[in-house]
């Protein structure tokens, strides 16, 4: 894995950790209010699981797009080199 991918993956993991910790921190800080202690959301665990699954899917899609873009860039470079060979332009044709 390249350094660029490692940095992006690390940033994505950090973002997911912050997003996951944010609702937990706000729920713990809400203990001061009596009304918030009595309120309960049915299916709250299921909601958190759905959020986690959603962020994992978004992260997977972003990773897939990054990999595909890298492959397309490599193909483009290879095709440009082949075109230079066929046309015989080489470095002289670059402006």
TrEMBL record:
The chain crosses the membrane at residues 43-64. Residues 1-27 form the signal peptide. Keywords: Membrane, Signal, Transmembrane, Transmembrane helix. NCBIfam families: CcmD_alt_fam. This is CcmD family protein. It comes from Lujinxingia sediminis. The lineage of its organism: Bacteria, Deltaproteobacteria, Bradymonadales, Lujinxingiaceae, Lujinxingia.
